[in-house]
Amino acid sequence: MKTHTMQAAFARRRSVSAALIVALTPMLLATPAFAQSDEASTKAARARFQEGVEFYDKKQYENARAAFLQAYALRKHPAVLLNLAQSCLRSGHPMESVKYFQQFMRESTSITPAQRSDAEKGLAEARTKLGRLEISAPTGAEISVDGNVIGTAPLSEAIDVEPATHMIRAKLSDGTTDTKSVTPGPGDKLKILFAPPAEQPAAAPVPAPVPTTPPPSQPPPAAATPPQLDAPPDSGAPGAQITEEPKRDTTTGRMSLVPAYVGFGVGAAGLATAVAFYFFKKSAQDAADEAAADITKNGGTRGTCVSTDPTVIARFGATCNSLRDNNDKVDTNATVGNIALGVGIAGAVFGGVWFFVAKKKNASAEKAPTTGFIRPVPMVFSDTKGFGLEGAF
């Protein structure tokens, strides 16, 4: 009778926001699991459970989480897990909520379709705040995440992790390890692949030893004699050994003069263009001056060419057009000539600087000392014969 009264009281306290959580209260309170336990622990568990419901109704989710954790510690009944998972999710503990949602669906034997649906929705919502890792590794490889072993390959499902950098390690069957670092974001699902251990190549056959001494019946090979210089026919002196003079590298450190010649060419072309447009400008200026003088000579003024009087236009129109055209040519030719002059000067300066630097460096390279050598040479004089030394330093 007392149990029914408490159930009715819990039902009256139920709110719309906590309908899912409070709906499990009768199942928790009426279960024989509590009746078979210590009366004090059962009473304390019921009190903590009721506190959790009240905190959840007030949207004090962290307090609700703590109360449901205490209730579950006193009486490990699956009915508490769904309440605990929802409180963890609402209080910002998505990893804990995933754990309790999965435990609820795994351990509850009398779960209803509505409760399973709510648990699956809560689990999906929690995973939007986490990262998931799909780890693929050779069968039997030991997989650990941040130093914690989570199982051996193949893993049955992806691993939920906080959005942060994690170290994934696979210990392969041959004893070798492979480590990868990943940083999933909220809602990310990353695939991590560990390759199987490389096969060891077969050992190459060892060839039979080859004897290094000649057979006793054969005489040992004669020692190689160095090249000899023939002495003079009647000197009777032995030949002298040839020492080859080292070849000198005459290209080391040299600079090409081609860029200098290109610069000179650009400079010459620019200067020639500038001179040509100077004459074009002068010719246009002369024609403009001549047109202006003709207008003045025939009674025109500076404003004649901007007049709108039909009589003035009929009289001076052609001359004014010529004046305007030639003035435009003066401006255009001056602009092109100045640009060409700038390019020519730049090209000439570049070519000159390159030529000076290259000549100086090439001259230094040509004066670089060569490797010294010394060698004997046969010598014949009028009254004596013999050998002398020849060398370079």
Automatic annotation (TrEMBL):
Biased composition (Pro residues): 204-224
Membrane-spanning parts: 336-357
SUPFAM superfamilies: TPR-like
Keywords per UniProt: Membrane, Signal, Transmembrane, Transmembrane helix
Region called Disordered, residue ranges: 199-251
Residues spanning the signal sequence: 1-35
Name used for this protein in its record: PEGA domain-containing protein
